[in-house]
Design a protein that fits this description.
The chain is an alpha/beta fold. The protein is 46% helix and 17% strand. The strands form six sheets. It has an eight-stranded mixed sheet. An eight-stranded parallel β-barrel has the order 24-25-26-27-28-29-30-31, surrounded by six helices. A five-stranded antiparallel sheet has the order 1-2-5-3-4, sandwiched between helices. The two termini are 43 Å apart. Bound molecules: adenosine-5'-diphosphate (ADP) and magnesium ion (MG) (2 copies). One magnesium ion binds at residues 739, 778, 799, 802. This is Pyruvate, phosphate dikinase. It catalyses: pyruvate + phosphate + ATP = phosphoenolpyruvate + AMP + diphosphate + H(+).
Length: 908
Amino acid sequence: MPETQDQQKFVYDFTEGNKDLKDLLGGKGANLAEMTNLGLPVPPGFTITTEACKVYLDSGAEPPALRDEVSAHLDALEAKMGKKLGQADDPLLVSVRSGAKFSMPGMMDTVLNIGLSDQSVAGLAAQAGDDRFAWDSYRRLIQMFGKTVLGVDGDLFEEAIEQAKHAKGVTVDVDLDAADLKKLVGEFKDIVAKETGRGFPQEPREQMDLAVRAVFDSWNGDRAKLYRRQERIPHDLGTAVNICSMVFGNLGPDSGTGVAFTRDPASGHQGVYGDYLQNAQGEDVVAGIRNTVPLADLEQIDQRSYDQLMQIMETLETHYKDLCDIEFTIERGKLWMLQTRVGKRTAGAAFRIATQLVDQGLIDEAEALRRVNGAQLAQLMFPRFDHEVASGDTVQKIGRGIAASPGAAVGKAVFDSYTAVKWSRSGEKVILIRRETNPDDLDGMIAAEGILTSRGGKTSHAAVVARGMGKTCVCGAEELEVDTKRRRMTVPGRDGKDGIVIEEGDVVSIDGSSGKVYLGEVPVVPSPVVEYFEGRMHAGADEADELVGAVHRIMAYADRVRRLRVRANADNAEDAARARRFGAQGIGLCRTEHMFLGERREKVERLILAHTEEERDTALGELLPLQKNDFVELFEAMDGLPVTVRLLDPPLHEFLPDITELSVRVALAESRKDHNENDLRLLQAVHRLHEQNPMLGLRGVRLGLVIPGLFAMQVRAIAEAAAERLGAKGDPRAEIMIPLVGTVQELEIVREEAERVIAEVEQARGVDLKLTLGTMIELPRAALTAAQIAESADFFSFGTNDLTQTVWGFSRDDVEASFFTAYLEKGIFGVSPFETIDKDGVGSLVRAAAQAGRATRPDLKLGVCGEHGGDPESVHFFHEVGLDYVSCSPFRIPVARLEAGRAAANGR
Ligand code: ADP
Ligand code: MG
Ligand code: MG
């Protein structure tokens, strides 16, 4: 082989690669090489590397050395096969297959039978002793090459085939004979000539080179580019190209092609799973052109190949130590392997397979943790539709869209936001159905059980907002025709069946995990995994709990290795108890604002309206025992575990009546000359406290500093509750957290006052409360001055929701509903920064503040209490940054535990 100038090797024979060279050879090429080296029957071939592609993409031309290197490998291949590419009397044919490191939509489809020409088609026929086969192969080449390499509209070829079948009065392609196919070849060539202005290339090497270049070019197709941007796959990886000698499944009934899984991708059970199609080539088996048979039937059709395939599947599974999927072809009774890769699987199967493989001794516990993920666990925790009913006759499946936000929702169909709100206020459950949603639909979306749209994908407004709200959503169910004006939706009739009309008020059920839409009520059953976490179901009780048993074991592995502790965001004893059952190791965020709502609102109003010190003290005095009781219950539920209580955070207007409503009330009273002194004062206060940007207004520590006695009352309630628990032989571990601090001075003032109050309570009760005082880091300034702030804080808790808002300078409520869709579609975000922490921006502040804080105070406790605390990718980031704990909503706790375990198992 000629040495390239810079010694770089651009072409690897299948015998030269292996499965770990995916960066260089792409997934398909690396696995073809691996199978070759395992001694499995892979048709010989070679792979052009991603490096060659990169040169092409950078410079607009193949690397100069590539042509010779390909020639050398082609020579070797020809020597091995004993025939030359396109040789007239006995042609070597090859396939040209793209294969990047990650499989992605929009890459060039494989072209089979390269090397056939007007000349060699006769040679192929003679060699095979089968004219029909040769002409069938040739027409496939022109069709595939025409469409994917030359860019001819594929429908033109399909139409010609349909006409040929019609003319002959047959319905399937196998009923076209050699003469018909030969005629088709002529027509196909005419199509190519007409559409491209030149004839179908007859030179075999030119066919191959053009196909290779087309693969390179497809890397920068629009669909591939968009996909990469959204999935954050770098644009400079490039794709490899595989040249693989052809084997033929279309050589008669003793030939065929199939796909197989080494285990059931739905249950994880071992067995025979796959499909087979006799006398067929390539994609026929998945294209649905004829009915396939279950793989098990191959045993009857071709016992020897079947046995060999079973053997190979076992070899592959043992070798890859995982479920593999496989493409194979049988040519006249000889089995060939054309592809394998670690196969996709359902969430439940992922857990079962991981533990099965541990039991088989194929993988260890750390590897089992890598084989599952939090998204899968979350999926298993959603309630689901009763399968029996969903597939029975009492409900009707009427459509399927994109599974945009998981869960199962049932309700009456409504077609506008106003009705959704109205009906839900009167206690009805509703499903909001729109063609697509926009910011005006927000109230309706909040009111609805679930959202269904007929347009839009995973980044549409409906999908983004529903995910943000944790609400079930199916979007883009295109077969549904939504008519919001007439308040109905129709499913058009098909195949002689009548259409269906769904009117406002009809009950529909939507499955946000599968995208399925039903007319009628599908009962919702609880997730067995949640039943298990709740302690209502025990692992290993019966067969149905194979899944639960697997989850149980994997969670145990995760808990054993993880370094991050997991706490809950919980505001009351009930949530706290649930969180504890789910494995919470404390409360990372107890918000006290809910304790100020409901019937207590009036007392808060009095506090806000207080003119004199006396009035204020009375109001605070009334709130104190109520607050104290809340804390007693909470500390009891979390006995022995830390509970971080955040002092009051939200802007005061949230506790006051709505400005418009109150203004109307006062105006009406005025007109009746019926003055209500209290309402007047209230209105004044409401005006005074009304803010343009409440998110940036009078809230958090600022409240504590301008409303004398407020924080002191809260601290006293916490201290007395803790003292009471101690008196009851409990083990309260309260941590007092000051929100929205921007400078250490704020913290110092609050701290001094708090310490004074605590000392008073300790002295009065004769106890040592061991309360700690810390702060949230949720403003950029706090993060930037973390070294100073740590001087006055026992702990930091990163409030990543507010930190994200303040670092980006946008408010979540406003942006999610307005421009996030556009940003996601343009690929500016791969995912909303409120879902997964923005590592480069917000994350780097977290990292720096954590380091600075620890530098000041090495024992500073560090946690996070934003919603990111339950997001898988973010959990890995917090692990890496070295935080002590994450805190998330009770329902996300298992996900956080699992991901914390996975982060530790990755050994970083
Ligand atoms: P994809 O990535 O879409 O699966 P592949 O490169 O695997 O594309 O090829 C598409 C189809 O053609 C598959 O069914 C594959 O098994 C078949 N195929 C690819 N190369 C050959 C070959 N050399 N001989 C026979 N069939 C082939
Ligand atoms: Mg394939
Ligand atoms: Mg906050």
